[in-house]
UniProtKB/TrEMBL annotation:
<dbReference type="GO" id="GO:0008465">
    <property type="term" value="F:hydroxypyruvate reductase (NADH) activity"/>
</dbReference>
<dbReference type="GO" id="GO:0009854">
    <property type="term" value="P:oxidative photosynthetic carbon pathway"/>
</dbReference>
<comment type="similarity">
    <text>Belongs to the D-isomer specific 2-hydroxyacid dehydrogenase family.</text>
</comment>
<dbReference type="InterPro" id="IPR006139">
    <property type="entry name" value="D-isomer_2_OHA_DH_cat_dom"/>
</dbReference>
<dbReference type="GO" id="GO:0030267">
    <property type="term" value="F:glyoxylate reductase (NADPH) activity"/>
</dbReference>
<dbReference type="GO" id="GO:0005777">
    <property type="term" value="C:peroxisome"/>
</dbReference>
<dbReference type="InterPro" id="IPR029752">
    <property type="entry name" value="D-isomer_DH_CS1"/>
</dbReference>
<dbReference type="InterPro" id="IPR036291">
    <property type="entry name" value="NAD(P)-bd_dom_sf"/>
</dbReference>
<feature type="domain" description="D-isomer specific 2-hydroxyacid dehydrogenase catalytic">
    <location>
        <begin position="37"/>
        <end position="346"/>
    </location>
</feature>
<dbReference type="InterPro" id="IPR050223">
    <property type="entry name" value="D-isomer_2-hydroxyacid_DH"/>
</dbReference>
<feature type="domain" description="D-isomer specific 2-hydroxyacid dehydrogenase NAD-binding">
    <location>
        <begin position="130"/>
        <end position="322"/>
    </location>
</feature>
<keyword id="KW-0576">Peroxisome</keyword>
<dbReference type="Pfam" id="PF00389">
    <property type="entry name" value="2-Hacid_dh"/>
</dbReference>
<keyword id="KW-0560">Oxidoreductase</keyword>
<protein>
    <recommendedName>
        <fullName>glycerate dehydrogenase</fullName>
        <ecNumber>1.1.1.29</ecNumber>
    </recommendedName>
</protein>
<keyword id="KW-0323">Glycolate pathway</keyword>
<keyword id="KW-0520">NAD</keyword>
Length: 386
């Protein structure tokens, strides 16, 4: 018998039972559900990461849908439990869903939602922040000030890297990678080299137009290049930011051999998923190359760091906060709730998961559609004509 898990209940007499494994920002997502006759149960357990047993206890005997988190292991066991409880809807409160076994969800006929479109700029802004923080050694300098060590201006004090005119490398130029590339090109006039399985046409056009704009003003233009291999990016770029999805093809994409091909003073940023980088190899590389710097939002064994990383002065490390702006987190909560609600109500799937603004409007009811269901095709769910 699983231990009971503490919850907070909204609209106790609602017809559909929706469980959220965490309290999420804002209350709009709760009202969107209770206005449509849902009883909403929010887990209030103090521990950060719920076990599979905790979630089974939350699902209970009757549950129509669950909103879950990327820290949870949504596989065969949980989808079987949700299906037994009569549930057909699950949504991650995240755009990535490497914590979800989509095949298992398909087997039990459970729709899997994610929350694209609202994380793009916020995540790209954190990647840009980490790039600057690493380039200008801001954390080291801040610690130095607070320790009372500053006794006057010195020519060598915390000398870092100038970004202007250098090359930014992007691996995975999808939504977030492209937004980050634009920020670094537009904001710091860096040249761009990128690697992706697909051509980032809009990004290329933007950099071309921006380069022409600069040239017309008598300034040094910016250039872009689509690399034919990832290694080309690693060899040529001064700042490299990782933005691919995590799957078998991107696991340990950055390893010992590839780190060795990067410039000695390069900056590596990871706001994708921890296992994209072999963190043990990274710690060793940071030790051997004090001018190589890294900015990390994600870690291979989250919430833990590999031994030695915390001691490295050339690493800037933050606790997976890339999507942590109020607008984004509230938007993620709304989209996750509407994915679950839409499936419960039998709504079709929104045609373009990248254009989710109509679901975010606080003053108008959202469209009668599921904003983003990743296994819609596999489940044969209809697409909205709205
Ligand atoms: N740190 C955070 O809080 C945070 C926030 C949001 C997203 N993310 C991560 O960022 C990822 C990207 O998000 P997105 O919205 O930009 O997704 P996206 O699907 O728009 O972009 C991913 C890109 O990676 C490319 N790609 C896939 N395999 C590749 C490979 N082997 N080599 C190079 N490129 C490859 C794809 O072609 C695609 O263009 C998510 O899957 C998620 O894991 C992290």
């Amino acid at each position: 018998m699983a231990k009971p898990v503490s919850i907070e209940v909204w609209n106790p007499n609602g017809k559909y039972r929706v469980v959220s494994t965490k309290s999420m920002p804002g209350t709009r997502w709760i009202y969107l559900l209770i206005e449509q006759d849902c009883r909403v149960e929010i887990c209030t357990e103090k521990k950060t990461i719920l076990s599979v047993e905790d979630i089974i206890a939350l699902i209970g005997h009757k549950c129509d849908g669950v909103i879950g988190q990327l820290t949870e292991d949504w596989g065969e066991t949980l989808f079987a439990a949700l299906s037994r409880a009569g549930g057909t809807a699950f949504s991650n409160m995240a755009v990535g869903y490497n914590n979800v076994d989509v095949n298992a969800a398909n087997k039990y006929g459970v729709a899997v939602g994610n929350t694209p479109g609202v994380l793009t700029e916020t995540t790209a802004e954190l990647a840009a922040s980490l790039s600057l923080t690493a380039a200008r050694r801001i954390v080291e300098a801040d610690e130095f000030m607070r320790a009372g060590l500053y006794d006057g201006w010195l020519p060598h004090l915390f000398v870092g890297n100038l970004l202007k005119g250098q090359t930014v490398g992007v691996i995975g130029a999808g939504r977030i990678g492209s937004a980050y590339a634009r920020m670094m090109v537009e904001g710091f006039k860096m040249n761009l080299i990128y690697y992706d399985l697909y051509q980032a046409t809009r990004l290329e056009k933007f950099v071309t137009a921006y380069g022409e704009f600069l040239k017309a003003r008598g300034e040094q233009p910016v250039y872009w290049k689509r690399a034919s291999t990832m290694d080309e990016v690693l060899r040529e770029a001064d700042v490299i930011s990782l933005h691919p999805i995590l799957d078998k093809t991107t696991y340990h994409l950055i390893n010992k051999e590839r780190l060795a091909t990067m410039k000695k003073e390069a900056i590596l940023v990871n706001c994708s998923r921890g296992p994209v980088v072999d963190e043990v190899a990274l710690v060793e590389h940071l030790k051997q190359n004090p001018m190589f710097r890294v900015g990390l939002d994600v870690f291979e064994d989250e919430p833990f760091m590999k031994p030695g990383l915390a001691e490295m002065k050339n690493a800037v490390i933050v606790p997976h906060i890339a999507s942590a702006s109020k607008w984004t987190r509230e938007g993620m909560a709304k989209l996750a709730a509407l994915n679950v609600l839409g499936k419960i109500k039998g709504y079709p799937i929104w045609g373009d998961p990248n254009r989710v603004e109509p679901f975010l409007n606080e003053n108008a009811p959202p469209p009668a559609a599921c904003p983003s269901i990743v296994n819609a095709k596999a489940l044969g769910l209809p697409v909205s004509k709205l």
